[in-house]
């Protein structure tokens, strides 16, 4: 009896012209969005390669101590899976407007958005009459009179509705993957296949949630008109309201100073205030211990080099002055860096607390859980951005240690060598981004996965409780 009910539900949907058209639209949207985002990914990748080469050439030609740090800024290679899950968009931040700047201004429709918004809405619209429609047609009364248990009826409707909804968007997804593998040349190795499979599984769960939501609304309504209104209201709350309101609520509950204020404060500390302190200490040092060297700040570099070459005493005194001056610079930089670092640390901690609260509030909605899960699996979310930032910080430390060692070596060989002289940085460390492993991503995403499973069970269970008191007359 359950089998016949499931097959009937699937058949009714498959012969429904509106369902067929909606399914075809989903398939076309998925394939088109994958093709567009894959082309955008290829453009970003080409631009990334060009920027890396240009950075290396610029460092080799114009590198010196004062500009060495920002010259070798770590750059992140675009994520392969952003063709399916766009996640955080960083292309506009990189000024990466290759040939079409309008693309940065327009929203992009990725697979995750299609599932989260369109597929879920279609699921509600084609299941809201599962129970109330049978009641209005009089078939529900006949089936129950023939001995069909109400629990079996709900179970059959649930399975049949889920299979009907999962079929078309799965076809679209597989077509998109086929395009990526066969058309765009994406390698289908083990980790890549695992990511593809996990994205599909998470999407299955999400669409099944709204199939259950439509069924629950139908089982609590005497007419289909009431059911569709309840279903649309539930969809709006779960998909549009709760995820978008959560950041606003978090900002009200946990305030954070503006990023502009933090940037201005740290810039003032590390530039204007730092230069004033450095000048005061350097002036005091020259006046008290190196007055015999003359007015060094106003001497031309060529004059200093001539004196160093001609006068051994001046050479020794100038080398001592240079070492002491560099130590003052290092000390002032450390002091001001620590002072600015305290401000940025406080800002970071407050931002992370606000982010955790917003994430928690958004997780009360299946749309929020799906977004966090898919971006985690695809490596395009907040966690991936934080992982990249940590790797970039480690690289900066290693690179700067190399620069300082090379600069000290040059100074030891040439006492007149200054921070604005060309510094040979060949052999420097190179940044190589290593994304998190698929096992680590899945483990971190398990709470979201469990939340989706909970919602999948919740609405059919609620529908099962409702049908027991449902008036079939």
Rg measurement, Å? 32 Å
Straight-line N-to-C gap = 22 Å
Secondary-structure element sequence? HHHHHHHHHHHHHHH
The count of DSSP E runs of length 2 or more, i.e. the number of strands, is 0
Proportion of β residues?
Answer: under 5%
Structural class: mainly alpha
Assembly category: single chain
Number of helices: 15
Helix amount, in percent?
Answer: over 70%
Q: Characterize the biggest β-sheet.
A: none
Overall pLDDT score: 87
What does this structure look like?
The protein has 473 residues and is mainly α. It has two domains: 2-255 and 436-467, no CATH class; 259-367, no CATH class. The protein has 15 helices and no strands. The protein has helices spanning 2-14, 17-62, 68-71, 111-125, 132-137, 139-145, 150-183, 190-219, 224-253, 259-289, 301-310, 312-362, 366-378, 382-413, 438-467. The longest helix has 51 residues, at 312-362. The chain is elongated. Residues 90-99 have low confidence and may be disordered.
Layout of strands and helices, then pairs:
Layout: H1 2-14, H2 17-62, H3 68-71, H4 111-125, H5 132-137, H6 139-145, H7 150-183, H8 190-219, H9 224-253, H10 259-289, H11 301-310, H12 312-362, H13 366-378, H14 382-413, H15 438-467
């Amino acid at each position: 009896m359950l089998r016949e009910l499931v097959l009937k539900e699937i058949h009714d949907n498959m012969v429904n012209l509106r369902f067929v058209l909606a399914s075809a639209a989903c398939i076309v949207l998925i394939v088109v969005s994958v093709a567009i985002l894959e082309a955008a990914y290829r453009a970003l990748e080409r631009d990334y390669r060009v920027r890396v080469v240009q950075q290396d050439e610029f460092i080799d030609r114009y590198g010196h101590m004062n500009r060495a740090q920002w010259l070798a800024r770590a750059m992140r290679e675009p994520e392969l899976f952003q063709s399916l899950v766009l996640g955080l968009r960083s292309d506009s931040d990189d000024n990466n407007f290759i040939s079409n700047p309008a693309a940065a201004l327009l929203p992009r429709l990725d697979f995750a958005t299609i599932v989260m918004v369109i597929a879920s809405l279609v699921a509600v619209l084609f299941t809201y009459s599962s129970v109330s429609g049978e009641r209005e047609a009089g078939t529900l009364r006949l089936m129950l009179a023939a001995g069909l248990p109400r629990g079996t009826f709900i179970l059959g409707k649930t399975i049949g509705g889920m299979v009907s909804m999962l079929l078309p968007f799965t076809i679209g997804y597989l077509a998109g993957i086929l395009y990526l593998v066969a058309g765009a040349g994406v390698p289908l190795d083990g980790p890549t296949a695992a990511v593809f499979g996990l994205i599909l599984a998470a999407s299955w769960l999400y669409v099944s949630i709204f199939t259950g939501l439509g069924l629950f609304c139908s089982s609590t309504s005497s007419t289909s008109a009431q059911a569709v209104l309840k279903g649309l209201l539930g969809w709006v709350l779960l998909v549009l309201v709760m995820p978008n309101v959560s950041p606003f609520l978090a900002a009200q509950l946990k305030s954070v100073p503006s990023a502009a204020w933090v940037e201005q404060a740290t810039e003032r500390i590390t530039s204007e205030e730092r230069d004033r302190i450095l000048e005061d200490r350097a002036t005091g040092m020259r006046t008290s211990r190196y007055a015999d060297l003359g007015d060094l700040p106003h001497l031309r570099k060529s004059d200093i080099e001539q004196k160093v070459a001609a006068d051994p005493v001046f050479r020794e005194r100038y080398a001592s002055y240079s070492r002491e001056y560099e130590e003052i610079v290092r000390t002032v930089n450390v002091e001001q860096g620590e002072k600015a670092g305290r401000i940025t640390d406080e800002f970071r901690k407050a931002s992370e607390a606000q982010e955790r609260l917003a994430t928690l509030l958004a997780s009360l909605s299946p749309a929020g859980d799906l977004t966090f899960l898919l971006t985690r699996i695809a490596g395009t979310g907040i966690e991936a951005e934080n992982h990249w930032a940590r790797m970039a910080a480690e690289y900066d430390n290693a690179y700067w240690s190399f620069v300082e060692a090379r600069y000290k070596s040059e100074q030891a060989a040439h006492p007149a060598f200054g921070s604005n002289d060309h510094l040979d940085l060949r052999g420097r460390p190179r940044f190589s981004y290593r994304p998190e492993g698929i096992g680590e991503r899945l483990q971190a995403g398990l709470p979201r996965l469990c939340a989706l499973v909970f919602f999948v069970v919740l609405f059919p269970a609620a529908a099962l409780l409702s049908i027991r008191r449902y008036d079939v007359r």
